[in-house]
Structures are given as C-alpha cells and as structure tokens.
C-alpha cells in the first residue's frame, strides 16, 4: 500500500519532468515555426509535425524529420538541408536564428523570395551556407563577418542588388565564394584581393562595373575565377598574371578593351582561359604559347588582329582553340596540325587565307572543325577524318576547290556545311557509311554527278541542301521521302530532271524545295502522306496535270509555290479551308475557271494567280458574264450618228460623275468610314464609335501601350483598340499600309480586324486576347507560369513562325519593329501571338512623316530600310529567346551567353529549364540557345534570316558555330 502511495505521489513530478523535457526542445518549435512561413506545394515537409517529437530528455524531437541532421545522440542540430523541395515564400528570420549549433544550412534550388534574413549571420558555427538558385532580393545583409568559420558561401542565381558585400573579405577561412547571377552593381571591392584561403571566386553575370581591381592579383590561393558577363571598363589587369595557383580564368563578355596582357603567360598552371566577347585588340602575344598546361583557349569575338602565333605549336595539352569572330589573318601555322590532343578548332569569321595545314587531323582526334567565312583556298586536308571522331565540319564561305573525297570514309560526321565554295567534285559523300549524319549543306557550289540513290540509307538525316549547284543533274532519289527523320530537302537550281518520286512515306518532311529544275510529270497524289509538310516549292519546272486535291488537305501546309509550270485544271476551293495557308502561288500555268470566293484567296494578291489566261475572279479581273446579242443591232452608216451621240452623252455623264466624286471625296474626309478585314462583321461607323466611347484600358495592357483600349462592339465582340493619327498627305500610304497589316493572317499573329477612321486618323480594331503577355508569364514565380520546357518551346516556335511569316511570306515584307516580351500575347490555349507588328516605325501615333522604310514596294523588291529593320527584328528575337531560356532573368542581353565553350553558362540555362527534362529536350534547349547567339551577332550581315532560323528550329538540328 505504501509503495502505491509513493508511486501516486510521484506522478505529478514525472509529468513536470516530461513537460520540462518538451519545453527544453526549442529546435523543434523553431522548425515548426519556420515551416509555418514556407509554402510547400509538393508536401515535401509532410513529416514535420508536432506529434513526431521524442520525449526522452536532452534529445531533439525533430532529428528524424526529412532534411534534419543531428549528432549521434540527437542533442545538437548540425545540418538543415531544404534543397530541391519546391519551396517558396519569405523567411522572416524569426526562427532561423534559433539553430545556434548549425554547421551546414542549405536552402538551394527553391523559390524563396524577399530579403535574406540577417539573423542567419547569428549562426556563428556555420561553415557552409548555400542559398543558391532562389529569388532572394534587395541588398545583401550586413553582418556576415561574424560567421568567422564560414568556408563556403554559395549565393548563385538570386536577385540581389546593390554593391557586393566587402566585409566578406574578412572571412579568413572562406574557400568558395559564389555570388554570380544576380544584379549586384558597382565595382568589385578592392578588399577582395585580401582573401587568405579562397580557392573559388565566381562573380559573373551581374551588373558590376568600373575597372577590375589589380588587387585580385594578390589571390595566391585561388584556382578558379569567373568574373565575366559584367560591364567593366578598362583592360585586363596584368597583375592577374601573379595568381600562381590559377587554373581557370573566365572574364568573358565583360566590355574589356586593350591587349591581352603578356604577363598572363606567368600562369604556369592555367588550364582554361576564356576572354571571349570583349573588345580586346592588337595581336595575340606569342608568350601565351609557353603556358604548356593550357587545355582550353577561347579569345573569340574580339577585335584581335594579326596571325595565329607559331608558338601555339608548344601547347601540347590544348584541346580547344577558339579564335572565331576576330580580324585575324595570315595562314594557319603547320604546328597547329601537330597538336596531339586538339579536338576543336574554331577560327571562323576572320581573314585567314592560304590552304589549311595538310596534316590537319592526322595527329589528333578532331571532333569539331569550323574554319568557315574566311579566305581559305586549296583543298580539304586528306587526313582530316583520320582520328575517327570528327562529327562537325564547317568549311562554308571560303574558296576551297577540291579534296572533299577525304570525307568518303568519314563515318563519324554528324554535321557537314561546305556551302558557298568552289568545289567542282563529283558528289563526294557515301551515305552508306554515314550512319550518324544529320545535317548536310552543300549548296552554292559546282558539284556534279547527281544525288546518289544511297542517300536513303542515311537514316538519321534531318536537313539536306544542295541548292544552286547548276551542274548537279540527275534525278530525285526514289527513296528520299522514306527517311524517318528528314525535315528539310532543298535541291533548287540543280538541273534535276525526271519525275517526282512517289510520296509513299514522308511522315517527317516539312520542307521540300525543288524549284528551278527540269522536273516533269504530275504531282503525285500520295502527297497526302506528308502530314507534316509546311513548305512546298516546285516553281519553274515543267510539271503537268492538275493540282491534287490531297495537297490542299494537308493540315500544316503554309507555303506553296507551283508557279511557272504547265499545270491545268481548276483552282481548288479546298485550299480555302486551310487555317495555316499563308502563301499559294500558281501564277504562269494553264489553270482555268474562277478563283474560289473564300477570303484566303483574296489575301494572296493578284501576283499569285497572274499568267493563267483562262483564270478569272478576285483578286484577278471579274469573270465575264455572257450577254445575249440584241436582235437587229448592226453598226453601219445609219447607226454612226447615233453612236456619236451616245458617246457624247456618255462623256457628259462621266464628267458629271468625276465632279460628283470630287465633291463626295471632300465630304467624305469629314465622315467616319470602316474598313473590314476577315473576322469583323459589317458594322457601321456609328456603331463602332458608340462602343469606343465606353472603352477602358485593357487589363493586360503593356506599360508602353498607353493608347491601347478595350471595347465591346454591338454584337458582343470584344476588341482591343488603338488610336492612330497621320498627316493629310499620308492618307493613301497609311491606308495601304494598314491594308497590308490587315491582310496578314497567321496563327501566331494577332489579327487586325478592321479600321474605323476619317482623314486625320482613326482606330485600329484588334482581336482581344485576355490571357496576358510574355512579360507577365516570365516575371511570375520565376517563370513558372510559362510551364515546363515543352510549353516554353511552344512559345519559342510560335514567335519564330509568326516573325518568319512577316519577313518572308508577306510581299513586300513587314518588319515587326517592336519585338519584345510585352508584345507577345497569349490566347486561351497559351498559343503566342505577335502584337504591334508593323506599327512602330511609321510613327502612326505621332503624325510624323513616314520614313522611306515604308514606301510601297513592288513584289521582289526590298527597301534597304526594311532590310535594316528586319535585321533588328532578328536581333530582338535573339534577346527574346534568351529571356525565355532564363525565365526573364536576362533582359536586353544580346551580348550574353555567346560561346559554346562556356559550358558552365549552358549548365545554368539547363538548370533554369531542365528539371525532369529528357535528353531530347536538353538538346532543344541547347539548340534554342545557339540560335539566340546567332541572332544577336553584332554585325547585321552575320545574322541569319528568319527563314534560316525557322529551318534550324523546325529541323531540330544543332547549328555548330
């Protein structure tokens, strides 16, 4: 009994002990408090619940939770790892400071926003702090010097702004400092030259300016330094040559000028030197040839002159030599061909001359060779494929004449570009040996012998172009359409004869160009199997028969040119059902009957139908109606007086009509009129004006579109409205320009439905798309509203196709003029539409005089102003692609991400997009990045056309440059 009494008396004390134990676990409470601040859509912290606490004394109850790592006895919390858990929200710092024993804090690869809590720096035992790949913003908080044991600070890819924190240099134990990929500005603090233990320094991709401090040369322990992709002034400090342990130096895309410092040759351990995309000038110092450890050397896209130093023959470890896009000249030294490890030689777009070293390829295993756009002559080195690994060979735009027979056993080739040379060989490729070949461009040469029939064995071929080889001859190989991956087949102006092969299997083909040949026979009806066909050019041949109905029913067909043949039969009305068709040219054939009345035929214009004497109807002359002969009418002497009287009467009537027309024209200048395009009902001007009087700004209005309004027309149609004005002298030109824009129809263009105006100006009525614009999608939750890579690629593809239509399928072309993320709007299916195209440079809203750019041109003409604006469009497209690739982080960044050699930058683009992406999608990401780099080249003449851009993206082929 007494024992029972004692036990009962101890119960309250046991309870108090339990309460004390639980209360003595502040870590668990702080973790639960931290969880309350975090948004966790993936439920990654589902096991962080109060009921999971342990109750034994001096033990932390949360040690079993995910991401929590404690000592063996669970008495101290040492690591908190919340990385890659799809978390977002703002961390206040109210709870984070409770983890006083923490050694490792990892918040990386999430979407945390707001200011980084200063309370983190109260964790004075921290050795590793990883906050990378989030969206922390504002200035970097003060106080980090208190974390005196810190060895790793990784803040890569956030949105920090303001100056770099200079007090970091007081951390004597710091080994890794990564503050790249934010918006830090101002100069690099001179104090950063005082680190005692630093081995890794990464400050690239910010907005840093000023001169690079020479004090960085004092960093004797640093092995890896990346400080490029900023906006410095001045030159590369020669003092960097004092960094005796440096192995990796990257100051690419940094606005640096002056020469490459000779003192860099003191970096005896240097393996990688990247100084591309600057304004470095003069010749390359020969002393760089003494850095025998050098593996990667990229000095591309600068203003360098002079020859390749012969001392480079000493770089026996060199794998990458990239000097492309400079002003260098002279021959390639023979010693380059002796480098045993060289696998990438990239020297395109210079002024090199003479023959290539004839031993090139014999002493190393070359993988990539690009010597295009130079003045090379002679032949292709016979052993260029001897290493058995050459996958990319770019020789285009030189003066090579022979030697391509060396490629007959080059079985590793994936990409081959030899266009625009003087090759006179018989067709050199043995496709039976080229099992991996994907891209072949041999256009603009003098090849002979025809396309070999064994091309059907190149099962991976995607792009094939032999156009403008006037002596090629032969016929179209019968098995060409059966290639499973073929997207583009171009063989225009090749003197090819014979019949078109049957389209038995052409599931992947999107482009067929066979214009200006000697093809005969009919267009095979089996073209219906080409379900992906988008462009068909068979112009200037001798084809006969009628246009097959199956052609008009292809779902993706957008561009058809059958002009200058001998086709007969009627004009197919089924073309009018196509939602994608933008160009149909059947001019100069023997087509008869009337042109169908569907609106799509009117948009083609008369040039698409002329040269068919028996064809009539809009947009050609009206079809004549048969008028019955009036009985008893004859022209003779007795009727001549009546005829003269009738002619006089008609003349008087015409004169009266002219006077009336002038009067009505003047009166009409004071009246409102409506021009209707496809999709707008036949409203009267008063109905539209009444609707506009109640219009309001659109919800998705771009910041610069202050004149864009939303209105509901009488039948309930919602439109976006823009007011325009012009000078009276511009009326006719402006109306014609508006008509061109109104007749431009493409699935990726916003439709101009109509125009309501009088002489001083009026209102443009557009489709109203309420699903927002690209800026909004990219700026929300780090681009999450754009979706996965598949959704982003859909956006990229739509933008490119819309712009390509404006440039190549409108006659004359229509430059967009204001291509930016604000002017890409989305419909309900998230299909992108180009808005505001053709509206900037006529200065429609300001009443200024129209520039020459927008003079009305004849078909086939291109004004120099239009060419310039089209090139500007392409540059803006490149910048826009970079924005999409980086979820809006890189704005107006045409100077960024310009080198394939900078693999770390490409990895960051992958990290922005490739969560869960497969290998094929990663290749697409890489492709889009490369196209963006091509589009943002500084020289207008070096940018691709939109047609080329579309071919590259449509073919899903990687352009190696």
From TrEMBL:
Membrane topology (UniProt): Single-pass membrane protein
Sequence ranges assigned to domain Protein kinase in this UniProt record: 683-961
Main location: membrane
Biological processes per GO annotation: post-embryonic development
GO CC annotations on file: membrane
Tagged with keyword Signal: yes
Transmembrane segments: 643-664
PANTHER family in the record: LEUCINE RICH REPEAT FAMILY PROTEIN, EXPRESSED (PTHR48053)
Protein name: Protein kinase domain-containing protein
């Amino acid at each position: 009994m007494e024992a029972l009494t004692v036990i009962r008396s101890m119960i309250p004390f046991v309870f108090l002990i339990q309460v004390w134990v639980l209360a003595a676990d502040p870590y668990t409470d702080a973790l639960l408090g931290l969880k309350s601040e975090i948004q966790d859509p993936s439920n990654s912290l589902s096991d962080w619940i109060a009921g999971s606490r342990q109750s034994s004394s001096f033990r932390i109850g949360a040690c079993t939770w995910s991401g929590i790592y404690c000592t063996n006895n669970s008495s101290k919390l040492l690591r908190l790892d919340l990385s890659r858990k799809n978390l977002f929200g703002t961390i206040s710092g109210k709870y984070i400071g409770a983890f006083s024993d923490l050694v490792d804090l990892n918040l990386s690869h999430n979407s945390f926003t707001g200011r980084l809590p200063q309370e983190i720096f109260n964790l004075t035992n921290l050795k590793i702090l990883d906050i990378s790949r989030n969206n922390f913003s504002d200035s970097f908080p003060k106080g980090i010097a208190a974390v005196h044991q810190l060895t790793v600070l990784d803040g890569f890819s956030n949105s920090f702004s303001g100056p770099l924190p200079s007090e970091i240099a007081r951390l004597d134990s710091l080994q890794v400092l990564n503050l790249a990929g934010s918006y830090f500005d101002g100069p690099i603090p001179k104090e950063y030259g005082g680190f005692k233990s630093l081995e890794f320094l990464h400050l690239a991709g910010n907005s840093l300016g000023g001169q690079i401090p020479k004090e960085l040369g004092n960093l004797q322990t640093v092995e890896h330094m990346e400080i490029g992709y900023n906006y410095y002034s001045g030159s590369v400090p020669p003092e960097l040559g004092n960094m005796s342990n440096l192995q990796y130096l990257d100051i690419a895309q940094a606005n640096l000028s002056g020469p490459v410092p000779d003192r860099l040759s003191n970096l005896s351990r240097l393996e990688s030197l990247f100084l591309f995309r600057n304004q470095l000038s003069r010749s390359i110092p020969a002393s760089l040839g003494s850095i025998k450890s050098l593996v990667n050397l990229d000095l591309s896209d600068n203003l360098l002159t002079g020859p390749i130093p012969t001392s480079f023959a000493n770089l026996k470890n060199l794998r990458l030599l990239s000097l492309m896009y400079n002003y260098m000249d002279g021959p390639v030294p023979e010693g380059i061909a002796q480098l045993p490890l060289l696998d990438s030689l990239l020297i395109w777009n210079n002024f090199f001359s003479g023959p290539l070293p004839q031993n090139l390829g014999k002493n190393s295993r070359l993988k990539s060779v690009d010597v295009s756009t130079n003045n090379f002559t002679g032949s292709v080195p016979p052993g260029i494929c001897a290493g058995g690994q050459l996958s990319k060979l770019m020789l285009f735009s030189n003066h090579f004449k022979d030697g391509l027979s060396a490629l007959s056993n080059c079985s590793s080739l994936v990409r081959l570009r030899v266009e625009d040379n003087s090759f006179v060989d018989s067709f050199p490729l043995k496709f039976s040996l080229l099992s991996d070949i994907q891209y072949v461009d041999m256009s603009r040469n003098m090849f002979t012998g025809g396309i070999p029939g064994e091309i059907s064995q190149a099962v991976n071929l995607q792009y094939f172009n032999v156009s403008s080889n006037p002596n090629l001859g032969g016929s179209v190989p019968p098995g060409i359409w059966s290639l499973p991956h073929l997207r583009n087949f171009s063989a225009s102006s090749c003197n090819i004869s014979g019949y078109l092969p049957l389209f038995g299997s052409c599931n992947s083909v999107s482009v067929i160009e066979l214009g200006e040949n000697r093809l005969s026979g009919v267009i095979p009806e089996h073209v219906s199997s080409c379900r992906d066909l988008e462009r068909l050019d068979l112009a200037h041949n001798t084809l006969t028969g009628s246009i097959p109905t199956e052609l008009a029913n292809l779902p993706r067909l957008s561009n058809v040119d059958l002009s200058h043949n001998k086709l007969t039969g009627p004009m197919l009305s089924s073309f009018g059902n196509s939602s994608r068709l933008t160009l149909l040219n059947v001019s100069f054939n023997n087509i008869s009957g009337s042109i169908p009345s569907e609106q799509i035929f009117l948009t083609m214009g008369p040039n698409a139908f002329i040269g068919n004497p028996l064809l009539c109807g809009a947009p050609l002359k009206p079809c004549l109606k048969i008028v019955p002969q009036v009985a008893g009418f004859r022209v003779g002497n007795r009727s001549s007086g009546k005829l003269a009287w009738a002619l006089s009467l008609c003349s008087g009537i015409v004169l009266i009509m002219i006077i009336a027309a002038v009067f009505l024209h003047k009166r009409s200048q004071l009246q409102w009129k409506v021009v209707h395009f496809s999709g707008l009902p036949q409203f009267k001007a008063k109905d539209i004006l009444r609707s506009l009087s109640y219009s309001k700004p659109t919800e998705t209005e771009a910041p610069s579109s202050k004149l864009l309004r939303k209105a509901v027309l009488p039948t309930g149609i919602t439109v976006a409205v823009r007011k325009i004005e012009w000078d009276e002298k511009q009326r006719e030109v402006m109306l014609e320009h508006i008509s061109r824009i109104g007749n431009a129809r493409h699935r990726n263009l916003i439709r101009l439905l109509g125009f309501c105006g009088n002489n001083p100006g009026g209102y443009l009525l557009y489709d109203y798309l309420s699903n927002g614009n690209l800026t909004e999608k990219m700026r929300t939750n780090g681009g999450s509203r754009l979706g996965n890579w598949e959704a982003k690629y859909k956006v990229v593809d739509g933008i490119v196709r819309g712009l390509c239509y404006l440039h190549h399928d409108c006659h004359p072309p229509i430059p967009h003029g204001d291509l930016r993320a604000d002017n890409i709007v989305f419909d309900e299916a998230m299909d992108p539409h180009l808005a505001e195209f053709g509206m900037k440079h006529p200065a429609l809203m300001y009443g200024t005089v129209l520039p020459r750019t927008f003079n009305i041109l004849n078909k086939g003409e291109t004004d120099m102003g239009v060419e310039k604006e089209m090139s500007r469009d392409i540059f803006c497209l490149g910048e826009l692609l970079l924005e999409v690739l980086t979820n809006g982080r890189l704005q107006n960044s045409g100077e960024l991400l310009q080198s394939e050699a900078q693999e770390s930058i490409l990895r960051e683009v992958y990290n922005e997009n490739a969560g869960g992406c497969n290998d094929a999608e990663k290749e697409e990401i890489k492709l889009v990045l490369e196209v963006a780099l091509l589009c943002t080249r500084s020289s207008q003449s070096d940018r691709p056309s939109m047609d080329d851009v579309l071919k590259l993206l449509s073919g899903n082929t990687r352009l190696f440059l």
